[in-house]
Amino acid sequence: MSYTEAKEKYAEYGVDTEKAIEKLKNVSVSLHCWQGDDVRGFDTDPEKPLTGGIQTTGNYPGRARTPKELMADIDKVLELVPGKVKLNLHASYAIFDDENPWVDRDKIEPKHFKKWAEFCKERGIGCDFNPTFFSHPKCDPLTLSSPNEETRKFWIEHGRACIRISNYLAEELGEPCVMNIWTGDGFKDIPADRIGPRERYRDSIDQILSEPYDFKMVKPCIESKVFGIGVEAYTAGSAEFALSYAAMNKDKCIPLMDNGHYHPTEVVSDKISALLTFFPEIALHITRGVRWDSDHVVLFDDETKEICKEIVRCGGLDGRVNIALDYFDASINRISAWAVGFRNVQKALLNALLEPQYLKEMQNNSSFTKLMVVQEELKTLPFGDVWNEYCTRCKKPLDGEWFKSVEKYENEELSRR
Ligand code: RNT
Ligand code: ZN
Question: 39, 214 in Cβ contact below 8 A?
Fold first, then answer.
């Protein structure tokens, strides 16, 4: 079927495909730099293990080892994905050279991200940022919740430095910078004191957010988590902790939900509207947990579709929901992993934008039978043709067209690493 026919089919359901396509073009989705190098970064020994309860598995060849390689890989991804991209950096991706030699995380400055700012500027994209509170010798293993005041001070200084860097990125690029605070602080086994770490964590975030910033340009987020590998029994930054912090400090930060960070029967798609009832703005990490927070590549699956429907239905595309990707698979071609996940979020958003408005009315009129019938019929409309049209208008490859260029890049570039 052609796009014109698809457009007519959707029109029968009262849906304007043109409007959906135009809307999606201007929605930013944040592309996580850490898929390219298995979350290793450039500021510590790349062979050291990841800590903080996160893990990458697999040893697929071609991991980016330098800023140059990572930038080249991101450029490759930018060729493959439609829609508006924002880059998402972690502090551990600071760039050190002869002019700006290595400093520890409490001492990083905007100048260590100048090359990234230039990279984004040249490509006309914005940048989000994350302090890196894991995989570092000063995790004792705790960071912002550590009982050791010297450790805690170090990590607070890191957080404050990251506010200044986020501010720099926002100013340089003229786009707000979402700065996400996540720590893997927690315990493998039953703790004797649960409130102490949380009180210290709270105080640490207070101190980080006392660094001056314009909340319209720098948007600190608090990300919660249920547990991590090696931190199974207790997580300081639990859902209740993170949400309460954000609720009590609405003028300073926003809550962030990662859909890998809840018990397996809980769904973030249901939580979006709950949060938007109270918060003007929220942030999301879109990932795919398989049995645990395994950070598999995002698929065009039911929950991703449902999350995107909720974003659209709640008016999230008009600045209320900050969307970012967060997954890392080291067992397959990393460029492909990036492209598949990004394209799938775009697909799910487009799919959501193609939902008729009158479904809400059916619900309000208690027409539940009809609602089910229509919802089921929508599933077999010619979505693929609208998706192809969207990719074409964004001047990006269609499904079936992009993978061969990844294979070429693998042969010519990745295989030499
Ligand atoms: C970990 C969190 C966190 C990290 C990134 C690298 O479980 O989801 O967001 O994945 O900061
Ligand atoms: Zn996350």
Answer: no
Q: Which of 37, 139, 326 to mutate to test the pocket of ligand 1 (most atoms within 8 A of CB)?
A: 326
Confidence of residue 49 (pLDDT cuts 50, 70, 90): confident
The tokens describing 25, both together, are 């073009």
- Between the CA of 366 and the centroid of ligand 1 the distance, in Å, is 41
pLDDT digits (tens, 9 = 90+) for 296-355: 999 999 999 999 999 999 999 999 999 999 999 999 999 999 999 999 999 999 999 999
User: Of the bound ligands, which one is closest to the alpha carbon of residue 295?
Assistant: 1
Residues 6+ apart with CB under 8 A from 288: 259, 260, 294, 295, 296, 297, 298, 299, 301, 304, 327
Residues 6+ apart with CB under 8 A from 163: 179, 208, 209, 211, 213, 218, 220
Our answer on whether the CB atom of 130 is closer than 6 Å to any ligand 1 atom is yes
**Cα distance between residue 30 and residue 323, in whole Å:** 6
Nearest bound ligand to CA 133?
1
**Beta strands at 282-286 and 254-258: parallel, antiparallel or unpaired:** parallel
Ligand 2 (ion): which residues have CB within 5 A?
Answer: 258, 285, 326
Q: Residue 322's Cα: distance from chain center in Å?
A: 9
Q: Looking at residue 48, what is its pLDDT?
A: 84
Residues 245 and 243: their CA atoms lie apart, in Å, by: 5
